[in-house]
Specification:
The protein is α+β, with helices and mostly antiparallel strands. The chain has helices at about 10-40, 45-60, 65-75, 80-95, 100-110, 115-120, 155-170, 175-195, 195-210, 240-245, 250-275, 305-310, 325-335, 345-360, 375-390, 390-395, 405-420, and strands spanning about 120, 130, 135-140, 145-150, 215-220, 230-235, 240, 275, 285, 295, 300-305, 370, 425. It is globular and about 70 Å long. Bound molecules: adenosine-5'-diphosphate and magnesium ion.
Length: about 425
C-alpha cells in the first residue's frame, strides 16, 4: 500500500479532492443516463457502485473528518444504497498509512524520544489504519501493545472537512439542509473530541473500569505514561476483528454470547452510567479465541444529560403510543412534531414516527428477541427506503428530531446491524 509522507492538509488540496470527486460523480450520472437513452433502461446498482468507488477513493485519501463522516453515513442503511455502505464500511481498514519518519517525529514532539527508545520493539509500518490515526504494535517487557498515533493536522481539518462534505451529503444522500445543520453541530462536537487522545485515554479508563464486571467482555489496560494528546498506548487484544469473524462460521451459542455481551454493555452504559461508547462499528470489537468481546476505541463517547435521558427513553415505555397525551408530549419534546406544524403536517409526521417507534421498539416488547429475523429487518429497511423517497420529508423545512439524539440513534442503529449480522438471539429485557 502507498504511504503518505504528508497528508493533504491545505484547504486548497482538500477542496480540489472534493471537486474531482464531484466531477466523477457527475460523469457517472452522465454514463448512467446516456446508457438509459440508448437502452431505455439503466442499472441503478451499477451507478451506485461506480459512485461509491469514486467517493470512497477520494475520501480514503483525505482521512480526517471527511472519512469519519463517510463512515457515519455508511452505518445508516436508511440513507445509503447498499453499494455505498459496503464501500464505506471498508474505510475503517483501508486508509493509507503515514511514513515511519513522521511517526518518529510525532513521538519526539511528545516524549522527547523515538518509539524504539521507549519500547523494546516497535513496528515501523502501521499494522492497522483508521480514520484519524494509525496503530502500531510494540513490545515492552514481553507485553504486546497497541500504539495509536493520530495523523498530524487532523484537528485543524475537521471543520473544513465538514463544510466541504456538506454539498455531497445534501445531494448524494438526499439530506435536508436544516436537518443537516442540526445533525452536523452534534457530529462536529463529537469529532473534535475524537481528536483529543488525552480525553480518549481518560474515558477509556473510566468507562472500561465501570463496565468490566459485565459478562464476557474484556478491555485492554491503558498506559498513561506512554500516552499523550496524539498518542494512545494500551494492551494489544489478541483475536479477530468482529467484521472478519462475521464472514466465517460461528456456532450459534457463541453468536448469542457475543450478542448478549454487546447488548448488556450498551444498555448498562445508557441506563446506569448515562455515558457511552457511541461507535458500535465492527472494527471496534475484537473477538478472542474463547469468544469474549474485546472492546476498543472510546474516541466517540456520548454523555446523556439527565433531562434528555428521561424524554428519549419514554419512547420505550409500553404506553407511549396508546396514551395519547403522553405520545403527543413525547413527540413534541423530541421535536418529531413542531408547534408551527399545520394539522396536516402533524398527522403525517405523527403517523411516521408512530410506525418508527413501533418498529424500532419491537425487540424490547418481549423478553427475548431473535436478531436473525430477516422479515423484521426487511420491514425496517423497506420503511427506511420509503421514507427516503417521501417528498413531504425532503421538502419539510423543519428539522425533525433533536441533535442530542443523533448518537443514541446511531448507536442503536449500529447495535441492531451488528446483532443482525451476528444472527444473535438474546435477552432484551433491561
Ligand atoms: N488494543 C488493540 N488490540 C488490537 N487491535 C487494535 C487495538 N487498538 C486498535 N486496534 C486495531 O486498530 C484499528 C483502529 O483503532 P481504533 O482505536 O478503532 O482507531 P479509530 O479511533 O481511529 O477508529 C482497530 O479497528 C483495530 O483493528
Ligand atoms: Mg475505531
Amino acid at each position: 500500500m502507498k504511504e503518505y509522507d504528508r497528508i493533504p492538509v491545505s484547504k486548497v488540496q482538500r477542496a480540489s479532492k472534493f471537486i474531482s470527486t464531484g466531477a466523477k460523480i457527475g460523469s457517472n450520472y452522465l454514463k448512467h443516463y446516456g446508457k438509459k437513452l440508448i437502452n431505455g433502461e439503466a442499472d441503478r446498482d451499477e451507478l451506485h457502485l461506480d459512485n461509491a468507488t469514486d467517493i470512497y477513493n477520494s475520501l480514503s485519501e483525505l482521512k480526517g473528518g471527511a472519512l469519519k463522516v463517510a463512515q457515519m453515513l455508511s452505518m445508516d442503511k436508511n440513507i445509503l444504497p447498499t453499494a455505498y455502505q459496503q464501500k464505506f464500511a471498508m474505510a475503517q481498514y483501508s486508509a493509507p498509512p503515514l511514513s515511519y519518519p513522521l511517526v518518529v517525529k510525532t513521538f519526539i514532539k511528545y516524549f522527547g524520544k523515538g518509539p524504539t527508545e521507549i519500547f523494546d520493539s516497535f513496528t515501523p509500518k502501521a499494522t492497522n489504519a483508521a480514520s484519524m490515526g494509525q496503530v502500531h504494535q510494540a513490545l515492552l517487557k514481553g507485553k504486546k501493545l497497541a500504539v495509536k498515533i493520530q495523523y498530524p493536522g487532523v484537528g485543524d481539518s475537521v471543520k473544513s472537512d465538514l463544510a466541504m462534505i456538506k454539498p455531497i451529503a445534501l445531494t448524494m444522500f438526499r439530506l435536508n439542509p436544516v436537518e443537516y445543520d442540526e445533525f452536523i453541530q452534534e457530529v462536529e462536537s463529537r469529532m473534535l473530541e475524537e481528536t483529543d487522545y488525552a480525553l480518549e485515554l481518560q474515558r477509556s479508563m473510566d468507562l472500561s473500569a465501570r463496565t468490566k464486571h459485565l459478562k464476557n467482555i474484556i478491555f485492554p489496560t491503558y498506559y498513561p505514561a506512554y500516552s499523550s494528546d496524539k498518542i494512545l498506548t494500551m494492551d494489544w487484544i489478541e483475536g479477530k476483528p468482529l467484521g472478519e469473524l462475521l464472514n466465517g462460521p460461528i456456532p450459534q451459542p457463541e453468536r448469542n454470547k457475543i450478542g448478549q455481551a454487546l447488548w448488556d454493555f450498551y444498555h448498562f452504559q445508557m441506563h446506569t452510567l448515562k455515558a457511552m461508547h457511541a461507535d458500535p462499528h465492527p472494527g471496534n470489537f475484537i473477538i478472542t479465541n474463547d469468544y469474549q468481546l474485546g472492546i476498543i476505541d472510546f474516541g466517540c463517547v456520548k454523555v446523556i444529560p439527565e433531562e434528555f435521558y428521561k424524554i428519549y427513553f419514554q419512547l420505550l415505555e409500553v404506553d407511549v403510543l396508546t396514551n395519547l397525551e403522553k405520545r403527543e408530549k413525547t413527540f413534541r419534546d423530541l421535536r418529531f412534531i413542531h408547534p408551527q406544524d399545520t394539522k396536516k403536517e402533524e398527522e403525517f409526521f405523527t403517523a411516521i414516527f408512530m410506525k418508527l417507534v413501533e418498529l424500532l421498539g419491537r425487540p424490547f416488547q418481549s423478553e427475548t428477541f431473535d436478531f436473525a429475523d430477516d422479515a423484521y429487518f426487511n420491514e425496517l429497511y423497506s420503511f427506511g427506503e420509503k421514507l427516503s423517497t417521501m417528498k413531504e420529508l425532503r421538502e419539510s423545512k423543519r428539522a425533525r428530531g433533536v441533535g442530542e439524539a443523533v448518537y443514541l440513534n446511531r448507536t442503536y442503529f449500529g447495535l441492531y446491524t451488528i446483532l443482525h449480522d451476528l444472527k444473535a438471539k438474546i435477552n432484551t429485557t433491561w
